[in-house]
Amino acid sequence: MIRVLLADDQPLIRSGFRALLDIEDDIEVVAEAAHGGEALALARRHLPDIALVDVQMPVMDGIEATRRIAADPALAGVHVVILTNYGLDEYVFEALRAGAAGFLVKDILPEDFLHAVRVAARGDALLAPSITRKLIDRYITQPLVAGTGTGLRELTGREREAVALVARGLSNDQIAARMVISPLTAKTHVNRAMTKLHARDRAQLVILAYESGLVVPGDS
Fold first, then answer.
1. 31 near 5, Cβ under 8 Å?
2. Which of 198, 161, 167 is nearest to 181 (CA)?
3. pLDDT tens digit string along 97-131?
4. Cα–Cα distance, 168 to 158 (Å, whole number)
5. CA 199, CA 28: separation in Å to the nearest integer?
6. Which of 24, 45, 59, 82 could form a disulfide with 95 if both were Cys (CB 3.0 to 4.6 A apart)?
């Protein structure tokens, strides 16, 4: 059973998402929050698999709530998915840096929304190749963060290659085809890289790959 926390300051939005989720046999909404502070408290109480968090909320916004959830060792199993009205707005990249596993636009089709919840519950990032490209090209403009490249030295050559392909939006199957290895081996390379780089999920691998200079905007 996938346990979901809904966090949005608009009751109508929450009830709409809940109506979609409640009819699914493998998904359960365990709590609803009207602001980020409440979302954080409820995440600690219920330990959901997924926290669907609106970016703009009173008291504590979604980015700060995401940052605090990601920083809490007790909430390591909680995957935060950011909800936004505007797609690639200025908050999305900051949310990914804070530890979000991905983001969804609120006008998403119901079947795509349900699929996304299940994808996030598996620990996969909600970043399609086209979205990854647009996101990185638009928001990776600041200087590299000091020390972000240090962890890459611990990776093997194949792990670095796998991380670079993750950063370009490839799935494990696509990485396997590109590297001429099995999907299981590709998954192993990615998981080992995540462990060595202390990344919560594939979304953070994308951020680390670009911040470290392993991949740069415009690479193909």
1. yes
2. 161
3. 788 888 888 888 899 889 889 888 887 766 654 45
4. 16
5. 27
6. 82
